[in-house]
């Protein structure tokens, strides 16, 4: 008898959970693309702020990347971004950061380190070309780069 009551209670809790979360799922599908984008950006910034406060988010971009949240084992479990340190140590940052740096969206105060770090991943033979791109995007001379 106790088992039947426990089973019934668990079933009711599951059903109640479905009914309580359905409106939220339904509301999201009813949102316009701009509302969904705004919601996504707000959530992303909240995650990044939380990670920053725990000293687990140190990005090398003007606008921090999101790939580090997604690529970490468990897709966010124990997520961490250390692209800033990677750049400073001549190690390539995440793929999103590399692309954004080459587009000119990296932290300009780190620009002298970008070519060496990116070349570490793409190949040392590309260092000259990468330095030219960095020079063009960030207004620093090739000779001032590491």
Strand-helix topology:
Blueprint (H helix, E strand, L loop, with lengths): L1 H29 L2 H21 L13 H5 L11 H6 L6 H9 L7 H12 L4 H12 L8
**Would you list the SSEs in sequence order as H and E?**
HHHHHHH
Overall morphology: elongated
| C-alpha Rg (nearest Å) | 23 Å
The helix content is 55-70%
Number of helices: 7
Mean pLDDT: 84
The count of β-strands is: 0
Distance between the termini: 75 Å
Largest sheet, strands/sense/barrel: none
Protein structure class: mainly alpha
Low-confidence stretches: none
Give the amount of beta strand, in percent. under 5%
What do you see in this structure?
The radius of gyration is 23 Å and the shape is elongated. The model has no long low-confidence stretch (mean pLDDT 84). With 146 residues, it is an all-alpha fold. The chain has helices at 2-30, 33-53, 67-71, 83-88, 95-103, 111-122, 127-138. The chain has 7 helices and no strands. The protein has a domain at 56-144.
Question: Outline of this structure?
Answer:
This protein has helices at residues 2-30, 33-53, 67-71, 83-88, 95-103, 111-122, 127-138.
Salient structural properties:
146 residues; mainly alpha; 7 helices
């Amino acid at each position: 008898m106790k088992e039947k009551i426990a089973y019934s209670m668990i079933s009711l809790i599951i059903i109640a959970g479905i009914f309580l979360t359905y409106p939220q799922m339904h509301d999201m599908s009813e949102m316009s693309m701009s509302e969904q984008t705004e919601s996504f950006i707000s959530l992303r910034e909240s995650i990044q702020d939380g990670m920053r406060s725990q000293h687990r988010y140190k990005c090398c971009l003007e606008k921090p990347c999101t790939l580090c949240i997604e690529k970490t084992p468990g897709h966010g479990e124990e997520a961490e971004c250390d692209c800033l340190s990677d750049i400073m140590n001549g190690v390539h940052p995440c793929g999103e950061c590399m692309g954004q740096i080459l587009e000119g969206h990296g932290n300009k105060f780190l620009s002298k380190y970008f070519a060496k770090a990116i070349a570490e991943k793409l190949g040392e033979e590309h260092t000259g070309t990468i330095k030219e791109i960095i020079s063009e995007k960030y207004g620093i001379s090739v000779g001032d780069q590491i």
